[in-house]
Amino acid sequence: MKRSMLVVAAFAGLAIGTVLRPEPSVRAEQEDPFPHARHQGLFPLCTGCHEGIPTGDRGDWFPEPEACSGCHDGVERATVTWNGPSERVDNLAFEHAEHEQSRAQAGDPPGQCASCHIEPGGGRMEVAADIQVETCWGCHAHETDQHFNVDASCETCHVPLASTRFGTDRIERLPTPPSHEVDGFVLEAHGALAPGRTAMCATCHTRRRCVSCHVDTNVAEIAQIPTAPATMELPAMAATYPEPASHVDDGWLEGHQREASVGACATCHTSNDCRTCHVSAVPDIVAGLPSRESVVAPGVMLESRSPDSHSSLFFMQAHPVLASADQATCQTCHLERFCVECHEADVGGGYHPPNFMTRHSGDAYGRDSECANCHEPRVFCRQCHADLGLSGLRRAAAGYHDGTPIWLLQHGQAARQNLESCSSCHRQVDCTRCHSVLGAFKVSPHSPGFDAERAWAQSPRTCLACHVGDPTNGNVP
Amino acid sequence: MRGLPPASRAARHAREPTVITVSGSQGVSRSGGVLFGLALAVFAGQLVGRPHEAAGQSYRAWLSSSIHMVEVRPVGVDSVARAEVTADGEGGFVFGAYPVSCDVDVCSGLLPLSKERIFAATQDASVTYWGLGVQGLSVTALVRLRADFGGDFTWPRYDDEFDAMLGYAQLVRGALRVRAGRQEIRSGLGFSAFDGASGSFDRGRFGVHLYGGRSLARGLREPTNEAVRALDDFFVDKGVYLMGGAVTVREFGVSLTGRYHREILSDRSGLESERASVDFSTTLPRVRVRGSLDYDFAFQRPGKGELTLSAPLDDGTWLVEVSGRRYVPYFQLSTIWGFFEPVSYSEARARVGWSGSPRLGLWLAGGVRTYGDTETPVVLRPLEDTGWRADAGARWEPADGWSLDASYELEWGSGAFLSSGDVTTRYQATPRLGAGVSLATFQQIEEFRLGQGRAVSLGGTLDFAVADGMELFGGFSITRHRDGGTVFTSPWNQSRAWTSFRWSVGEDPGLANRGGRR
Hints:
The complex is a heterodimer of chains A (477) and B (518). Chain A has 24 helices and 2 strands.
């Protein structure tokens, strides 16, 4: 009986060894599970085979494979090919020897292998594949009834992932806690859970997991997650950036600066994201964000898009006033040359369509826009009109203004209505031939209410274009 | 028999002196040129030495080369033998469709001359470069080189071979921006270019902008007196200094900018302009509102103004805009034009747009304007003092990459009439290759000088992205004049062609969706 107990203990220890192993989490795993149950009659004690487990002596954790040939000698029993336990990797932080020692110090009786390695009601050598976690909870007062609850203290039993020798496959097989599968876990919940629970995060994650999305790698919680050793292979980690609800609101793009801060933006955005649109004087916040080149995470990788206002059907008609009302807003995305390139574009593009010139007179006449903003009339308009023969010819014979038979007598009204058009063909001297005190007819171009004194005070040189001396006779205010 | 007395282009140009603008070597472009040279050198160094770094944020640059050809048929005072003209039935004479004045043997009038053609080329280069070792420091330069490849006349501005359009250094520190060099102010008072300095402080709800320097002519990059010296018998041969400032307030959902702008002659002997403007925009629960108004202190009168209400309806399917607008031309005090007291017009406009389908959009707009009292003598009958305009259009995308645009425009005012229609189809064959064909027809009566006839124009465009950042554009248009009128009519036959190549690095994202307008 005593011998059989020894065998059981030995094999129980063997089983325990397959589950519980001291840091750094190496435990034994047989190539084929050892058939404990079939040997229950042979080994009365677990420590018969696993003598070193309670003592921490690794050399005696498992029996040598050659020990099997004591029975399986090919004569009395068939030979077996069991080669002993192969090394198996786990993430448990349990050390049998330390555990026994702490129990002893606390005055507790020595632990029984079966309490952890055999399912309740199981036979003496019916060693379970997994340990009975509930046994741990019996003493450690686990605060939850579920292994993966968010208030679990994982570090009590598990070492951080970065301290394991898990490979890519094993990491990918780590179970996903239910908390991770709720909507919005990535966007909001995980950030709320992480403070104070980074040890729990570290059980299944290395810092690499955090920085594969987080641009702001200097966050305290991230710094508390251990970094994986350089030799550790980690699964590919695709960055995920769910869009916050605020970002899809109407007008978010136009008003995002009100809520922008390095702390708020750097979770997902590198400065490259901002510079996708911000082209000139980047705000301090942008300068404070890490660049894409300096971090592991790619950031959201924004693509620039026009503000909603730009998609309005009549935006082109609206933009002059909008730009004048708040030029700094335009300069967020547009360099000054953007305006120049369009408003002063050469052929083939820009403000006017390619076929504009043949019909520009209509737009010029109606003054939908102010042509002189870009085209100095004396230089631009009149030069071309002159080349085409449409300049003022100083002749009263048949000519351009034939549409109205008595044009000369009516031109005053037309001129006051559309003087810019006059100046696109006529020089000032064409007018002063008559509208000057030295002119042929001395016709005053001024209306009855003309403030001559003010004009003389402001620009006397211009008055002298038509007048000899002070036209106000010294009556200047 | 035409051409009895020599009437030629030379004669025309004798009366209208050729524009002689001051070239860049005469100081106009010194500051811009130096900055551009600096920027270009650093840019080139980056390209050669640190391409990867340079490809990021350290610069944005482009080069654009274009060539264009224009063939037109000018008019000029020419003469014909009296025997070749006929009476027009109203006591006058016509040569063909062209009215002429006759003495005993010879008649003269504005007659079509021979076809004339011009080839001209433009080279634009622009760079904005950061990374000069000081955080927030950048330089920007945009220069334009022009070449007249010969031809029968000079295209506007092509006798000026070099313009430094922009050339400034800029330092940005937080909300503060300081800029020195050649720059532009684009505001509710129009565009003003100057060589000088500007500074702005913009922090959230409040911004202020101050600037000053040597003023440059509107639309040009040289002082006005130098630009027009050869063009007019009267001009004030003084440089002009410019100064101004603007305050922007963003509060309660309103963006509002007030601006003051003053120009004085360099010897302080006179004022060139003194104006102020207010521009604002806001979004109310169902309506967007924008408005502007400027005031000319020199002439003591309001200038241009606009108030527009824009209402998206039916979840944005419809957009309705109504505007009240006032327009009065602005002239600097150094010209006599402003003292002729041009009157303003007031206009009511409305636009309706429908874009219920991503592939189909329609719009219709119209406006009527009334000119102010010109206080001029009325002889026989006054000219009309109202004007109308209307336009409508549609855009349809029957399939991916294929679009069809059609528009119609009517301009009808005192002594002038334009009726014009366009149809353009464009096909994007591949992401890199696109082509378009357009057909237009228009009629311009009275002052617009097409007569009762019509012109028909056929055009085409081609754009090809040679490689990332490299694009080739080309196009042509051929216009033919059909059926002349009974009064003087410019021969409208003309042909135009152009091609341009553009290479850009670090494109300004705003440029991607740039659209032209009429």
